[in-house]
What does this fold into?
Amino acid sequence: MTKNILGLDLGTNSIGWALVEIDHDNKIVKILGLGSRILTMDAAEVAKFESGAKTESGASKRTSLRSPRKLNERYLLRRDRLHCILNLLDSLPEHYKLSIEFENEKGKRNGKFKKGTEGKLAYYKDDNGRFQFLFKDAYNQMENDFRNKYPEMFYHRKNGNETKIPYDWTLYYLRHKAVTDKDFELTKEQLAWITLSFNQKRGYEKVIGQDEKVQKEGELIDSFVGKVREVNKLEEDAYQIILVDNNNEEVELFKYKEETKIAITKVGDLKEVEIISKYDDEGTIDFKKTEYIINEVREFIITDVRNTGRKIKENFIFEVELETGWVKEQQSKFTPKWKDSKRDFIIKTKYDENGIRIPKGADKGRNINIPKEEDWTLMKLKTETSLTSFNTKNNTKGIASYVYYNLLQNPRQKIKADLITVIERDYYREELDLIYKNQERFHPELGNRDLYEQAIQLLYPNNLNHQKTIKDLDFNHLIKEDILLYQRDLKSKKSLIANCIYEKENFERTDEKTGKKYKNPLKAIHKANPLYQEFRLWQFIKRLKIIKKEEIVNEEIKLNVDVTSQLLTNELKEDLYAFLNDKENVTEKDILGFLNKKYKDLDISTENYKWNFTSEKEPCNPTRYNFILRTKRIKGFDYRTFLTSENEYNLWHFFYSVKKKDEFNKGLNNVISRLLDKTGLPKEFQSELVKNFSSFGGYTNDYGTYSEKAIKKMLPFLRLGKYWNSDDIENILSKSNQEIKQKVLDKEEINGEVKDFQGLWVSSACYLVYGRYSEVGEVQFWQSPYDIDNYLKNEFKQHSLNNPTVEKILVETLHVVKDIWKYYGEEIGKDEEGKIIYNKLFDRIHIELGREMKKNNKQKERDDKQNKENRKANERIVELLRELKQSNSSLQEKSPFQQEKLRILEESLLSSIEYDKDNTEYQLSNGKITKKEIKDITSKEFSKISRSDFERYKLWLDQRYQSPYSGRFIKLSDLFDRKKYEIEHIFPQERITLNALYNKVICETEINKEKKAFTGYSFISNAKSKKVFCSAHDSEVEIIAIKDYEDLVNNNFSGRKREILLSKEIPEEFTNSQLNNSQYISKMAMKLLSNIVREKDEDTFRSKNVLATNGTITTTLKRHWQLNDAWNEIISPRFKRLNALTNTNLFGDYREINGHQVFINTVPEETSKNFDSKRIDHRHHALDALIIALTTENHVNYLNNISSQESSEEKLNTRKAIKFQLTNSRRGFNDEKEWYFLPPAQIKSKDGIDEFEYQFKDFKSKVFKDIAQNALENTIASFKQKNRVIRQRWNKYLKSEDEKLNIIKQENLKQPVNYNVRKRLHEDKFYGKVKLQNKITTLSLEKALIEKYDLVDDELVKEIDVLKNNDGKSVKEIIELLNNKYAKVSVYEKFVATRFGNNLESFSQIPSDKIIKVIQSITDTGIQKILENHLDNYKEVINDKPKFDTENAFSSDGIKELNKNIIELNNGKFHHPIYKVRTSDAMGTKFSVSEEGQKSTKFVVTAAGSNSFCGFYQNGIERKFYIPTLRESVESLKQGFEPCPAIHPEDSDFKLLFVLNPSDFVYVPTEEERENSILIDFNNLNKEQMNRIYKFTDGSGTTMNFVPANISNPIIDIKAEEHKKIKDNLLFWEEINETKKGIVKKIKPLFNEVGLGSENKTKSQNTSNREQIKSSCLKLKVDRLGNISKA
It folds into this structure.
């Protein structure tokens, strides 16, 4: 019988695979193939995944980068639509209208600017080609306002021109006049300018569920925006403030006492109110503990700044006193120059329910801070407060009047991000509405119905429904609501919600391609749905077990006794459900407390009972609980009557469905009113209910497994008692299959009467309702590799796993399996389409998921945290070892084994006896011990203690020096004598594989033999004080009595070991450590692979032919099968090479083991941090996969203790039988007998061992290690590359036709020009071309014109323009005409400039020695001088060199100081405040974004890492190289060519040989192979040739870097600084170069295995033998399986 078994090892970024054929008849195991598939992921991404953090997919990254583009596209779309409407109203100026294309080439509405143009509505070109402002009359009116107030602003400059205020301020003037003066008539063009301005800044529209507060346990936090209704002076320095809800002024929020020296709050001000309700475990709110926090941002004058004299590190602590009398502490190195200045502060004041400040904490209940970027919501409130106050006082609307007023008060006022921050969209809505209403009487076309109907037909030619909806409205609504302020609904993302595996839609759909009818599955239920909450609660009650920790039965202690059936009766479960239904979550303590009230005589508490869950708490009904808390806030309200099941569902549905703020505010009132009517409760509670629910934050996107419809059908079977209804049951039971019904009866152990069908398991409910139970969905059968292809293309839903890292692995795994099937499968013919038909290949699939793959994020976070703590402990231990090493040279501080020894010493005796004398005696329970005796074991032969001895010592400490079975003292002198004492497994190895220390003790050798296969407790119980001769005591010893044993165990042990020692039988939790991983990822992997090997009669998601194993099993078998030795031999050449390079034995040496000289790989202790010999070669994944493939179910069962779930003799015999079959014994270390697993496929019987022959290709052997080693040496890893730079665009969109939405394919997408680029073309920063007066040079006219330099001579520029435009001369002709006249010309050097990222605050990060150079790059020389003068105030001279304190000079305070003194810094001249500057940079390799239009003047730089390709060119035997930019590659690929030019751009004699991309493989031939290529058979490379395969990493210029193909991590990789610190350093190598002067030798430090002398460079241009790779390499083609061929 022959079986093909596929082994898969799935890691974070790797797939190891091995296909083996086992022929049991002929006793042959053949390795058909094996390999490692590596997915390229950077180290940060892997670390992020393994630490439990959420990883980001490539699509997610593109989405985040695409978001700004989408926002811009929507802005442009609104503008285009406005253009069409304003043109219809004849409102656009003629010059602006000419730049717009109102119809496209298909005759459809357009509104876009013509290609290459982008007109400005307010500016037009005069006859001289100069821009002029269109609305001069309005500007002059505005200018008069400023002239009257600030005449000094207007003066004549040296050139005779008069200064002006910005033309753009005219916009605010016009908007202000249009709002405040009903009789002010705007021209049509002015109205169009105003309308288009609203498209640029239109305010913030809140969506329910965004920006919500994080809720703390025991607190309910709600946030409201309160509006000040009244301000009453109470006494001196105190005012009463009354706040009402800003959304409903009838609801009073809070009244409080504000203590301040001056009145700061005015009627109409807005403040954020946080109400924090404290509640206990029962959900009862303590109103006296309720806190009200008033949050606001206010501007105050600082009256004093005092140094307290206290310091924190380098900073002094200053007291900053505000004009209100409030004091804030501020840390700073220097005294803040704040006195008498105004600043914004965030004030957070805490009040009790009576409005009195709570003076607790260091801040006395008032926290004062400086606003940060994340405080934008409070800055928003500040702006809205100022706006509301101004508008109320001046009876106006919107923002324009407020802005114009402030400009009049302070012309230096910054508007954007200062005067106006983010504000609600309603302010813009109100202003625009008022402007249009006031202008309707001046422009009758705004009320013209015919024009309006034309407009809606123009905008919505196919959307008849929307036409009908807005038909009776007007231009005001159309422009305001439909275009400018329109907010689309958020995408539902419904497609990402999991499908229900049972229920489908009621209606049928038709497949476009095949015409087949189908029904889509329903979507899974939201977890906040009350039905889901009930469903989960009944499941919890069903799964809940109550366990009594200890019980005495017949004078025997029984541990962990299940008492669930005694305590949890059906009647009690009813009460338990009611109890849990009102809770958010439940703890073990809550459950036991509930039971203790029911069974007062039992004393049920956590001391003597526990539940069966490992988690600290389990969820109950958080949806209802939240509703209860909000209704409990209302005094006198009957929340139980209100929160009926129906009302609860209606409330949830409202909060789940409504997202828009205005809909939420209107709808909530109606919902609450309707629910009060239903329950008959008084309407007087309505306002309070609305208030308490108005701050509800919505729900996170979290969904279950089943649909709501499925849960409704299953719930009747889960309910019990008064919640259960027989009518719901009978209808379903009548339709159930009798066979299935019987299966449920057997499983649930019920009789079959209707009343028995309550409180069932979910699986039983599924069987009764749907006739099946599946955790993942319907099972499938894949008969050929094309089925896998079909699944990936048509069925697999991208992002369905919600984990991009795991999704990549699973998808690639299926591709690998598909390719294995095609490569190794037997071809049996072709189908009608000409596809090859393959025979079945796989009989079984064995899989191991890496531990990170199996864990959820919480588990990974917890493990990552623990690992960090362990690393800290190890670092501490290493330091201690270094100190000890000074007196003991044999210590290795980096040795993990010796670190473990020290950890025990550190944590045990030595820490407490360090300073005692050697003869000091210590009293133990059964004798004395001296410090000298302890030192004999811990220091005399410290570094030579074997691991087994050390384990003995650790156990000896752990059990307090006593044998648990005799109670006798164990002497140190006898501890390591194996004839006297042995390590004993409490739960015997014959019954369970559990090698953890908590299952081991030290006991007398003879007693251990007497114990046999009993547990410790069972042995003591049966021994009954039997006497046994013990050589350790040289006498007969009585086995300890049961009572004394219990006392000894309770006194000397704790935790898990105590529990094991007191267990008579092996508990279930220990006997089934099989991988029962419930993670969806694991289930998906099992299900998908089961589809390949599932047999026809199987209906479970996991086939019996899929075997799950784990890392512990793989590691164990690897050691027993001697594959660790094979692995060390495979990687040893790398260590030997480093020895040869350094002329040392630092990296290993030969040792004699069992009479053979064996090379032992080592690394220098200084470089061994995090070193793992397994991880340095990619082939270790293939090795693991080979072991996984050859692992049997018996291996898994034995090592995972599957056979020992009961104490019956039958089970024990089964386990013994498995051990007998799979294992054998031999003499090991210290001549001790040890058992080991037999080599793969071999089985021991009474007749002896069935020996197998092992084969790989033509190699055969009886030794499995040799075959495995040979197979691995002939294996090359393959890499998944990211080669795709462009992809053909494909798009569909919805179109309304005949009142139906049809899917339309976009036209002309198959043209070569329609491609999407998959990489960044350039960096985000963009530049504009500038002419710098201080950057002028002289060139020949020819060079200046050909290379397109800007000429300095204006007359020459005009002369050239005339020749070019009027006379039609070419550049060449112009040069010939003018070359004699202008041999040399002055030109501006090519420079570009940008404001991108040049906020002045960013200068604070620039070092002192570079700041002057950066300032000199600023294009405005006036600003240069101002900043240099400002820096002089922060300068100190050290060693005759100036040092500038840039951190403080350009801090927010430093910039305020600069702008405060800007006239003085500018030598007495006026200058606007400086917040941002424009810096210049040489043009260099920057390129324009587009060749025409506005973007032709915008320059960008190529994005880092985007140059993916490297061209190798050859002429004869000489080679040249060229790396194209991404733009060049894209253009070439779009034309269907190679990404590199066919001919070298700089030398046409060199033709393209091949192109390399990162992770491409090359072969480096020997000199003999170069001359005779027939010597290379790529299909059958030998071991030496395999070592000459290299992977291309990157290139730059003519430098090409490679790394040996199978190397995953270097053996050594240290920095120069670390290298210098090494004592007695031998890590040097000799570089030998052949030069004209002869052989030159140079000693260099060794930093890296691959890069050698290059610090942190795990790549090289040369082979291991120092041959240059690029000059002779041949490109290889490597498929997924690692098969090699020449490219």
